[in-house]
Write the structure tokens for this entry.
Amino acid sequence: MVVAHLETDERSAVNGLVELATADQLAAADEAEAAASRVHFQLFADASGQGIRWRLLSGNRREIGRSVLSYPDTSQCGSGIDWMRTHLSDLMTRIQRSDSGGWSWELLYEDEAIVMSGRRFDRQIRCVQALSLFRELAPEAVIHATVMLAHARRGAGDRVRLGAALSTPSHRTGARR
């Protein structure tokens, strides 16, 4: 964004038409734009009311991984994310090939899948690379406080802003989907 210096006469001519941005406003806008392009956790709920789940999205909004568990509210979903990040290095990995030939990964806690790949991969090496990317990016990803209401599994949804802060109750409150 370019801001030109205006002389006093030019400034008064523009004053009624355009509000000039302050340096703080420009910095805040740049920070908001950068935050939107970062890796983040998106919370989402389906129309059937089965609870809230999360998925990790890259800066270009491609899904890297998602929760297998469903949580009753945003607070417990956020706690599930925090729990997963804290225990990420302890989670066991399962890489599997489906009958149709696609590869997928899961992260397991006590033989229960809690995280799964966001899609199937045509090659095992790509699946392993995607898992490595998830393990690398998840610890530093921000949690967006917006819940996407998905009308269909791959459909566009409505966004709902929730004012409640994410707290940290136990991860085990989630229900398997």
Q: What stands out?
A: The chain is about 30% helix and 30% strand.
